[in-house]
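Incident review: delayed structure delivery

Summary: a single-chain prediction request sat in the queue longer than the usual turnaround. Root cause was a stuck worker, restarted by the on-call engineer. No data loss occurred. The affected request and its eventual output are reproduced below so the record is complete for anyone auditing the incident later.

Affected input:
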Amino acid sequence: MVYLFIKEIQPLCDPSDVIIVTSCLTKDMTCDVGLYRANAIRVLVHIIDSSFLGSIERYIKQAILDNDYYVSNSALVSASHLFSQSTENATIVRKWVGEVQEMLIQRSKGKSEYDMVQANAMRLLYQMKSHDRLGLAKLLQQFSGYAGSNIRSPLAIVIVIRLAGKLLIEEVANYGNSGGDIRSISSLSKLCFEFLESSLEHPDNMISYESARIICLIPNIGTHELSRSMECFRGMLISEKPTIRYAAIKTLSTVDKPRAVALCNEGLEACVADENKQIATLAVSTLLKSGNEATIDKVLGILPSLMSSIEDEQKISILDSLEHICLLYPSKHRAIVGFLSIVLREEGGFDFKLSIVNSIVSLIRKAPETAESSLLILCDFIDDCEFSTLSTHTMHIIAQIGPKTRSPARYIPFIYNRVILENATVRSSAISVLSKFAAHCPSLRSSIFGLLKHSLNDEDDEVRDRASIAVSVLKKAMELNPYIAPDLEEYNEVVDEPVEGDVAALVFLQQMPMNFKSLEKSIQAYTSTPGLMERDEQLTFSSLPVIEDSQEDNGNIDGNNLLSLGNKLTETKIHDPAAAVYAIPELASFGRIFRSSAPTELSEEETEYVVRCIKHVMPEHIILQFIIQNTVEDQRLVNCTVAIEGDSQCFEVAGEVAAESIKYGETANAFTVVTRNPDEPLTPCNFECALHFGVIQVDPNSGEDESDALDEEYPLEELELSTSDFMAKVAVPDFRASWNGTSDQNEALGKFTLQLKSMKEAVSSVIKLLGMVACDGTGQPPKSDNKPHMLHLSGKFVGGHEVLARAQLTTNKNGTMLKVAIRSDDKSISDSIMSCIH
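Output delivered after worker restart:
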């Protein structure tokens, strides 16, 4: 208790008082009682610094070799703590490598109590050599031969296995492996892989499992090299211990090699009926990823009883696997959708039911021939759905897909039942869905018109308003374009679609060019722009300021999940980055700013004068806002300007606005106006920058001036004006529709090799280079770098030109292969954006 008290009270004491107890603890380190020696070492290492460590170094080295396993173990653990405390301590501890290795070999044969001593000794050796790759390789070469024979401690062998795995994965990353033999990469990779395979046969399950797990983590490993690991897992799946079965099946579920995992299918099928539901769930998910058509039938027969006894999170993981297997075996689509319909009618939470609906929708989009049968399942579901939000979401999905089927009229009764039987939220949504059906299918307008008239007297205001608008619009559409039923002979040849310019299609089907959040920001930016509110011009979408979308709001949201968007919308205060420009009348006269860039650092944070630049882009001008901060206490800066100089024919400096005075700790703005020549092609340009200012010495205490202004010049970093600075990050509501609606005559194509081996880095780099925003959730790269990734990007170029891009990225051992297609309404703009990639 005394040792524990000293250890806990030390952080609260003055460092100068530590000397009082260190002498006592040092005496205890040399006494005859092992318990005292061990505890004294453990406490002492927490209260001393590197200057005192040298005086007790020999005692700790003796303790490492002590015959008492408790003392030796305490010394090794304490040495590990010392190593992590500071670089000075680490330098001293590295000198003990001889004693640690001697202890590791001496205790290879002895009582089981020394197993932990061996493990801690191996852990400390790994720490000592963690930043020395050659040292780690020698350590592995020295002790890999002991695995399963001379090293007694299983934990010590596990540490060696992880060391071998680390070195092997680094070898594969450095030299690549395109599916060939891993042993042929290098002599080190051969040593590591052979050691891992030999450990698979160890009688201790912990060691064999760790070896198999590490082998499965090797990138691009071949199926034949996984065979021995799969045999090891197959034996673990029939173990009597649930922990071993769970560990094996958890690892198998992460292996992205279905042919290799298929070797364990017999054991996985046995685990489906396991009493432990976690094991049974993982077995089902893994079987669905690696099994064949016969396996699917077996799993579907077992699933109903399993689904009733597991949590919703586990059910969702099984649904993801079902969706994946349905795409691999289209012949099983009917059986899988039938199973989903049964599960959809059973009890479950909101997330579970939403996952089922999204799975059905995903299958419809990837297998359009199944749309009608799947939509009928969704129609049955909304009859019994207890979640208003989910019912609304499902009805809008029916409105998107239903009118494009052969018999859209069959879905109308299901939707109208919601108008009669549901609450106001669902009723108003059903009115909108019926309106979309009528807009899509002129043949149904008269019938839907009659149904909607019944809702004109609804007790809810929202329902009445939507019904009133729908009735009014449909009435006008039927008057302007009355539907004439075709003859029976022509019936199959007539397309039931609205004519061009149809008012109902314009109101109910045409999407807004921006969401409501962006519309709110645009209107606020419009009202804050000087002079715009006094004009008599009509307010249209094209006249609103461009508001950039953040990557967090657009890049990582899946467009298929409509509900995820609602959870992202929060009320935030809108800040206009161009407010400082509009506050100066001379600059406000240039007009509305198209976009403003993020601040660019032109000096280090630790320098005397900190300068950042924001680029405000207009069609013919660029206003450079230099944010200047004075960090010198006895100086006041006056008449501060930033002079820029470049050799571009496209840009020319037109004028400057100086910051009059900047006291210590204050920040002020200086502006430089650059004119853009529209006749010259837009090319990147680097400007040399220098801060010009006058320095007045001041009294730090009183703040009074003590001298006249002395002109000074302070060099800054170069400022780059790139093509991407003229691109606003604006997302389109439907990228696929926008891409198909843009002509390919102005398309620019390119193929590049990026020196980036990570898919995440490549995606981020392409988005940054082009200055655009990711759409449809493509900004989130796949977890595996081995799979190609398609990136959808959109933006608006200065002048209001919409730009779309599709980029396919594929990683290999040489880097990342990038194929890009860029479309806009101007070929020169497409070519300029393509030139951003370098």
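Verification: The chain has 36 helices and 17 strands.
Action items: add queue-age alerting; document worker restart procedure.
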